[in-house]
Amino acid sequence: MRIYFDNAATTPLDPQVFEVMAPMLRDHFGNPSSTHEHGRKVKVQIELARKKVAQLLRCTTGEIVFTSGGTEADNMAIRNSVEDLGITHCITTKIEHHAVLHTLEELAEKGKIKLSFVKMNGQGEVDLKDLEELLQNNARSFVSLMHANNEVGTMIDLVAIGNLVRKYDGIFHSDTVQTIGHFEHDLSVLPVDFITAAAHKFNGPKGTGFLYINKRLKLHPFITGGGQERSMRGGTENVYGMVGLAKALELAYSIMPEKRKKIEAVKQHFIQRLTQEIPGISFNGTSGDLEKSLYTVLNVNFPKVDRPDMLLFQLDLNGISCSGGSACSSGATKGSHVLAEMDRDMDAPAVRFSFGKHNTLEEVDYTIEVLKKIFE
Ligand SMILES: Cc1ncc(COP(=O)(O)O)c(C=O)c1O
Q1: CATH class (in words) of the domain with range 3-11+256-375
Q2: Closest ligand 1 atom to the C-alpha of 209?
Q3: Dihedral angle of Cα 202, 46, 78, 132, to the nearest 10 degrees
Q4: DSSP string, 276-289
Q5: How many other β-carbons are positioned within 10 Å of the β-carbon of residue 362?
Q6: What letter does residue 32 receive in the DSSP assignment?
Q7: What is the position in ligand 1's atom list of the atom closest to the CA of 74?
Q8: Where residue 334 falls among pLDDT bands split at 50, 70, 90?
């Protein structure tokens, strides 16, 4: 038996997505910037993909810029805001993905911005009063707060925070990489300026994502070169990636309620069985609370063992793929900057199990049997 419980790291490509990508690789090789028929045909596919994404998210096509993934989209939102919108103060948390955190820290080190960290509780939930004070005391702040944390599943209320940021004339960026394709985002009403996505988190291809840029903002190119992506990102387009992303998002939206129900049942079962059968476990962030957390993530503290670094290895040997922190940076139990901010015993080994549409209750039961043997 081989089980994949690492869907927050990446998800398998849906065969239907592969089917729409294959002809773009095999047959339609024209350069979308070429004005002849070979090029025009491909250009049409890009614009159809953009239209599909914009329709699903209820924004305009001009607000969607395709990127190479979540990291680039986060970089574009942050760096362009500082460069083009005259932002000098940014607010974030210490548990953001490194795509956000390292970018903001670099800008602060170079003296381009002042960086403030909003207070959080031991589950990573943002202190709204502290956020309001920071906004009040610093005119036109850029706020970057992730919709759902990729390691511990803690979420923010996009509407409440977006409205607060608007009240103080700030700019609001939310890294939605872990929620696009898992929740509906209605950008016709959401008070956000930037959100980001990576197709491989919702059964699409790797190396493709997008940035939503609210039309009220006018930005210069992030990558200079040709005029591709409406001049925001020069370079010949990753056409098969864009086409795959749009199909993956369409599929994700078409099955969203059933998928959510199925995954929530898997997570609930996992929580129940762990609580019953492994004494001394606890959950990180809000991930143990179905109501308050990202339904695809469960982050568990296990009882102390002699070799905590061996836990993931033992699970792997028994056919279970999961991770100890964020697989984007390590894939191992070593030094998660997110867990370091949580209210927990730092000596307890933590494992992130993250679920996708293919996971089953039987896989949970098998995993519990393996864990029982490890901790008996
Ligand atoms: C919350 C979050 N933001 C950004 C990223 C980076 O996305 P990508 O690896 O597609 O650049 C990830 C990847 O895991 C993520 O989980």
Answers
A1: alpha beta
A2: 10
A3: -60
A4: HHSTT-EESTTTT-
A5: 12
A6: T
A7: 4
A8: low
pLDDT in tens, 112-143: 999 999 999 999 999 999 999 999 999 999 99
Distance between Cα 198 and ligand 1 center (Å): 7
279 CB-contact burial (10 Å; exposed 0-12 / middle 13-18 / buried 19+): exposed
Domain assignments of the chain as residue spans, ordered by start: 3-11+256-375, 15-254
CA-nearest residue for atom 16, ligand 1, is 150
- Minimum CA distance residue for ligand 1 atom 7: 70
Distance in Å, CA 364 to ligand 1 centroid: 26
- Catalytic sites, residue numbers: 328
Ligand 1 pocket residue status of 97, Cβ below 6 Å: yes
d(CA 181, CA 57) in angstroms, rounded, equals 10
Dist CA 217 CA 219 (whole Å): 6
Percentage helix, strand, coil, to 5, in the chain?
40, 15, 45
What's the pTM? 0.96
Q: What whole-number distance in Å separates Cα of residue 285 and Cα of residue 295?
A: 13
CATH topology of domain 15-254: Aspartate Aminotransferase; domain 2 (3.40.640)
Q: What distances in angstroms separate CA 265 from CA 3, 88, 295, 296, one per listed residue?
A: 17, 45, 10, 11
Q: Is any atom of ligand 1 closer than 6 Å to the C-beta of 208?
A: no
Q: 15-254: same fold as 3-11+256-375?
A: no
Closest-CA residue, ligand 1 atom 4, reads 70
What the block records as the tokens of 140 is 């036109």
